Amino acid sequence: MSEHFVAVAACDTIPEGKFIKVSIKGHDIILAHVEGRYHAVEDNCSHEDYPLSFGCLDGHRIKCSLHGSRFSLETGEPLDEPADCPIRVFPVKVMDGQVWIDPSV
Ligand code: FES
C-alpha cells in the first residue's frame, strides 16, 4: 500500500448509500459508501466552487445542490450541465476494518 494512504474512518461508521465528509492534509473530501464500495471525491463542485457535501447521492453519482450537475463517483466526470469539468477522485482502500484514502493523487 502506498505510504500516502491515510485511515479516515471505520467501515461500519458509513452506512450503505450515505457519505461522510473528511479533511485530509488540506483536502475536503466526500467519502461515499455505495453498493459495498467506497469512493472518495473532492468536496467541491467544478462549476462554481460550491461544496458537493451540500448535495446528495444518486446511485454512483453525487449531485450538486446548487445547479443540479451530477458527477460520477468513479471517474469524477460531470454527467449534466452546467458543470463541464471533472472533480478529483482519490484512491480508496479497505484494510483492517478501516477506509483509507490517498490524498496525494
Ligand atoms: S455550483 Fe454545482 S452545478 Fe453549479
Order of helices and strands: EEEEEEEEEE
> What's the Cα radius of gyration?
13 Å
What's the arrangement of strands in the largest beta sheet? Answer: 2-3-4-8
Shape: globular
- Count the DSSP helices: 0
CATH architecture: 3-layer Sandwich
Helix content: under 10%
Instruction: Indicate the mean pLDDT.
Output: 95
Please report which band the strand proportion falls in: under 5%, 5-15%, 15-25%, 25-35%, 35-45% or over 45%.
35-45%
Task: Compile the SSE list and pairings.
Elements: E1 6-10, E2 18-24, E3 27-34, E4 37-42, E5 56-58, E6 61-63, E7 70-72, E8 89-90, E9 92-95, E10 98-101
Antiparallel strand pairs: 1-10, 2-3, 3-4, 4-8, 5-6, 6-7, 9-10
For the structure shown, list the relevant keywords.
Rieske 2Fe-2S domain-containing protein, mainly beta, Rieske_2Fe-2S_sf, 2Fe-2S, Rieske Iron-sulfur Protein, Rieske_2Fe-2S, 105 residues
Characterize the structure shown.
The structure is a single chain. The protein has 105 residues and is mainly β. The protein has one domain: Rieske Iron-sulfur Protein (3-layer Sandwich), CATH 2.102.10.10. Helix content is 0%, strand content 43%. It is built from no helices and 10 strands. It has a 4-stranded antiparallel beta sheet with strand order 2-3-4-8, with no helix packed on it. It binds FE2/S2 (inorganic) cluster. FE2/S2 (inorganic) cluster is lined by residues 45, 47-48, 50, 64, 66-67, 69, 82-83.
Short description:
Helices cover 0% and strands 43% of the residues. The protein has strands at residues 6-10, 18-24, 27-34, 37-42, 56-58, 61-63, 70-72, 89-90, 92-95, 98-101.
